[in-house]
Amino acid sequence: MREMTCIVCPNGCHLTVNETNDEILVKGNLCPRGKDFAIQEIHHPMRTITSTVKTVYKEVPTIPIKVSKEFPKERIFDVMNQINHIQVDYVAQQGDVLMENVLGLGINIVVTSNILKETIHE
Amino acid sequence: MKQYDTLVIGGGPAGLAAAIGAKKENGEVLLLEREQRLGGILKQCIHDGFGLIQFKERLSGPEYVERFIQEFLSLNIDYETLAFVIKIDKKEGFYHVSYVSKKGVCEVTVRSLIIATGCRERTAKQIQIHGTRPSGVFTAGCAQHFVNLLGEKIGNKCVILGSGDIGLIMARRLTLEGMKVLGVYEAKATPSGLTRNLVQCLEDYQIPLYLSHTVTRVFGEERLNAVEIMQVDEKMRPIEGTQEIVECDTLILSVGLIPENEITESLGIALDLKTKGPYVDDYFMSSLENVYICGNALHVNDLVDYVSESGLIAGKNSMRQHVSTQSVSIDLSDDFLYLVPQRVSVHDVQESMFYFRAKKEMKAADLLVKVNGKEIMKRRYKNLKPPEMEKIKVKWEMGKISENDHIEIELKEDLCVK
C-alpha cells in the first residue's frame, strides 16, 4: 500500500493506493481525477512547470511562461535548461508559442502574460 | 469635484472584481491602483493552480488576473494607476477622497468605498530574529518580485523560514532557477501551506521540511553568511542547547500575511483580532456605512477564486439603495480560527455565505448554526485543517434577521473518528 497526496486541485485529497496483480485500488479521492493521478504517479510521475524567459526589453526584462502539458518529472531540469536559452525579441502575447516540442517531449513553451503588449509600444 | 457611485481602492483580483460588480449594477465606478500596472500580486505569481473554482481551469497568476483585466477594460471603467489615496473624509453621507497621481492631487466624491488593498507580509522585525542586518534577507514576496519580474538571481544557498504557500512555491522556484534550497524551517508543529504544495514544491525536489524549528539569529556583515537554527517547544519557545549554524547567503521569510489595514484603521473601522482585518456584515460592509472590504484586505484567503468572489459581491452590494449598519454579531465557538463575515445584517435574508478556518486539524467535526437556541443547520466536515479555508452557505429558515436574534455558530470536533 502507498499513501500520497493528490496535487490535481487545492483539495489535496489524501489517497491510499493498493496495487494488486491486475488492479490498482485508489481510495480517498473526491473525484475521478484523483484515481488517474494515483495510477500515473505510480507508473510514471508527470508534472508541469512554469518559469520566466528573458526579453530584450529593458522595461520588461522577463515574461512568464508555462509548458503546454505534463511531461515526465525526471526531465524537469532538462526542460528548464531549454527555457533558460530562450530570449524574446518581439512583443509576445499570451498564448504565443516560443519553443515547440521541447526535447521531443511533445510540449511547447507558451507565454502566459500580455505584459509586453501592455508596456512596449514600438 | 468629480462624483462617482463607487470608488475601488486597489487594482488586484479583489478590486478588479469589485469594480466589475459595481459597474454591472450600472454604477459610475473609479478604481485607483498604486502600482504602474493593474493585477496586484498575481503579476508575479507565475506558478499555476489559479482559477480551478472560478474557471475550472488551471491558470497561472498572470493568466487568471489578465482575464479580469480584459473584462474590466471592456466595461470602460474609469481607473488610474500610480495613484495613492492620501485622505478620506465623510461628509453628509458621502466620502470625499483625495489621492495623488500623475495628474497631481485629485479629489473625488463618492457614495460607496470598496477597500481592496490586499495584504502585507510579516517581516523579520515581527518574528524576533537577532543579529546583524546583512543583505540577503527577503520576504518571500520580495524574492518573488526580484526573480519573476526583474529576472534577478538573488543568491546561491538559501534557507526558508515558514512553510506558508508562498515560501513553498519560492522553494521550488529558486531550485528551478539553480539555487540550492537547504531546507524549509517551520516553528509550528504542523505545516502552514496546502498539502499539495508540500508535495509538488518540496518532496518533488527533495527539499527537507523541519517542523518545530526556527531561525533565531542571522550572521554576516555586508551579506548574510549563516543563520542559527533552534528547535522550539510547543509554545514556540527556542530550546536551549539545540543551536545549529547553517551556512547560507539568502534567508527567505514566509511567516504569514496580514490584511493591509492602513485605510481601514484611518477611518476608525473596528478590527477583528482573529482575522486581523475589519469586521464586516454579510454584505461585506464594515461598521461604517457604505464602506465595503473584500479580498485579502478582509482576511487572508488561500485561493484567489474566493478573493474575486468577495470582490464581485462587495461591488454589487456597493450599489444597494437601502443600507443599514444595523447588524447582529455571531457567537463563535473556540474551535474556529475565524469566521467571516463576523456579523449578519438586520434585514430580510434567505441565506448568507460564510468563510471559516478551524483552529486546529480535526479528522471530523460538525458545524452547527443556532438561532435563539434552536438548531437550524448542521453540517459534517472531514479533515479540517487551518491552512484550508472552508465555505458554507447558511439558509435562514425564518427569512429575516432581527436585532434581538442571537446567532451561534459552533464547531464541534468528533473525537470518535480517528
What is the CATH H-level superfamily of the largest domain in chain B? FAD/NAD(P)-binding domain
- As for the CATH topology of the largest domain in chain B, it is FAD/NAD(P)-binding domain
Largest inter-chain contact set: A-B, 30 and 30 residues
Helix content, binned percent of chain B: 10-25%
Report the C-alpha radius of gyration of chain B, rounded: 22 Å
The CATH architecture category of the largest domain in chain A equals Roll
- Quote the distance from N terminus to C terminus of chain B: 63 Å
Radius of gyration of chain A in whole Å, from Cα? Answer: 19 Å
CATH architectural arrangement of the largest domain in chain B: 3-Layer(bba) Sandwich
The named CATH superfamily of the largest domain in chain A: CPE0013-like
What is the SS-derived class of chain A?
Answer: alpha+beta
How much beta of chain B, percentage-wise?
35-45%
Tell me the count of domains of chain B.
3
Q: Report the average pLDDT across residues of chain A.
A: 92
CATH topology of the largest domain in chain A: CPE0013-like fold
How far the N terminus sits from the C terminus of chain A, by CA atoms, comes to 59 Å
Uncertain runs of chain B: none
How does the major sheet of chain B shape up? 7 strands, mixed
